[in-house]
Design goal:
This protein has 411 residues and is an alpha/beta fold. The chain has two domains: 240 residues, Vaccinia Virus protein VP39 (Rossmann fold, 3-Layer(aba) Sandwich), CATH 3.40.50.150; 91 residues, OB fold (Dihydrolipoamide Acetyltransferase, E2P), CATH 2.40.50. The protein is built from ten helices and 17 strands. α1 crosses α5.
Length: 411
């Protein structure tokens, strides 16, 4: 089922966050002008300096914006990065032990809770440790947990651990079922050269992987900005080359990332998760989007479980890595994945076109494909002579979405 403008947080969230804000003297969601001022300052600092707590932003303003706006927005990113793990039935334990690194107020943990709440059977309890250097942010995280306590029937228990980055999972109580680092890597070691930074972060990620249970998952979430996402791509390639972990998602292959071929390219999610209506005026006043949730992510596992293995029964399988490009007489989508070739299988990214006159019941699903969806075609898209990286869907091509189910099969 396609997600079109879904809103994850309900009105109860608004009342609870407003109560916490007002207790601390922060503007609440109905204080649109004051809250938008704080949000604008934090957004500018983050996009230009890489952190929301720069010297140009007052600490109270930063915390206010994080609590009442960015926390809500970032829950969708945590949900988006963990939803496939939940759908695949990989959270079968009654309770998950979670380590949230650079947690701030804890949006990634609450996003995971929303992902679990959508799937049953799945874990109905989260026991999370939130690590951060900011004592005030962690105090707010505790207040949020005291106000909320659950998402649906998924109970959330939080304890906090103040540490300096890059954090020590062993001190936090490793091993864990899930380690999640939301928008953390992009804040670390920004003064290093790109290649040196990747090498350092490979070592860091390996230490986080060591903090997992044998069937645990490491979830890395980053902003959808080009440089920060390309760093995640380069880190993915380095980890894959050394076989440090199994790539669970988003990729359906472990070959080099095609998005790194061109300097101006990158691959990010844009899920149809909107801000709640009560934050739209704030977003509009701060000149920020309120429709859709953009982020990049990488899910790694210590075992050999992956979406690629789950989808292997589909001979030709892709993930949509762009929105549909609709022009007169045709629609095009960039797909990245696995196709048959003379050597057995080839992996990479291809721009696939379907002409409107070739629309049939067999390929009608093409109309509904959104960025991030998994899709299979039978037969493979036909490569276009003399146009490398381009292919087409014909009238006789069957297009079907791939649904990863809790039984670890495809339907």
């Amino acid at each position: 089922m396609k997600l079109r403008g879904k809103v994850l947080v309900d009105d109860a969230w608004r009342a609870q966050l407003d109560a916490i804000a007002e207790t601390r003297g922060f503007p609440a969601s109905h204080d649109v002008a004051d809250l938008a001022r704080c949000v604008t300052a934090v957004s500018h600092a983050y996009n230009h300096e890489g952190h929301d707590a720069s010297e140009t932003v007052k600490k109270a303003d930063a915390l206010s914006a994080r609590l009442s706006f960015f926390f809500v927005r970032d829950i969708a990113k945590g949900w988006g990065a963990t939803r496939e793990l939940a759908a695949a039935g990989l959270f079968a334990k009654p309770s998950l032990k979670v380590l949230d690194l650079g947690a701030g107020i804890g949006a990634m943990t609450w996003g995971l809770a929303h992902a679990l709440a959508e799937h049953s059977p799945a874990s109905r309890s989260i026991d999370a440790v939130l690590c951060d250097a900011d004592a005030e942010a962690l105090a707010i995280a505790k207040a949020v947990a005291e106000e909320r306590a659950s998402v649906g029937d998924v109970k959330v228990a939080i304890r906090t651990d103040r540490q300096l980055a890059p954090f020590s999972p062993s001190l936090a109580g490793a091993p864990f079922d899930v380690v999640i680092a939301g928008q953390l890597l992009s804040e670390l070691d920004r003064d290093l050269e790109p290649a040196d930074r990747v090498k350092k972060h490979v070592r860091l990620v390996r230490s986080w992987l060591d903090a997992l249970e044998p069937d645990g998952a490491l979830v890395l979430v980053e902003p959808a900005l080009r440089d920060r996402t390309r760093h995640l791509h380069a880190l993915r390639d380095a980890l894959a080359e050394t076989k440090a972990a199994t790539i669970f998602a988003p990729c359906l292959h472990a070959a080099a990332c095609p998005a790194l071929v061109r300097e101006d390219d990158w691959c990010a999610e844009n899920r149809a998760i909107d801000l709640p209506s009560w934050l739209v005026p704030v977003a509009r006043s701060a000149s920020l989007r309120w429709e859709g949730s953009t982020f990049s992510y990488l899910v790694l596992r210590r075992d050999d479980v992956s979406l690629a293995r789950m989808a292997a029964s589909h001979g030709v399988r892709f993930r949509a890595v762009s929105d549909a490009i609709v022009t007169k007489g045709k629609s095009e989508i960039f797909l990245c994945g696995v196709m048959p070739s003379n050597e057995g299988e080839s992996v990479g990214r291809v721009r696939v076109t379907r002409l409107d006159r070739h629309e049939t019941p067999e390929n009608q699903a093409w109309n509904e494909i959104a960025r991030g969806d998994l899709v299979a075609t039978t037969p493979p898209p036909k490569l276009r002579d003399g146009r490398p990286g381009e292919a087409r869907i014909d009238a006789d091509t069957r297009v079907e979405p791939i649904a990863i189910t809790r039984e670890r099969k495809t339907t």
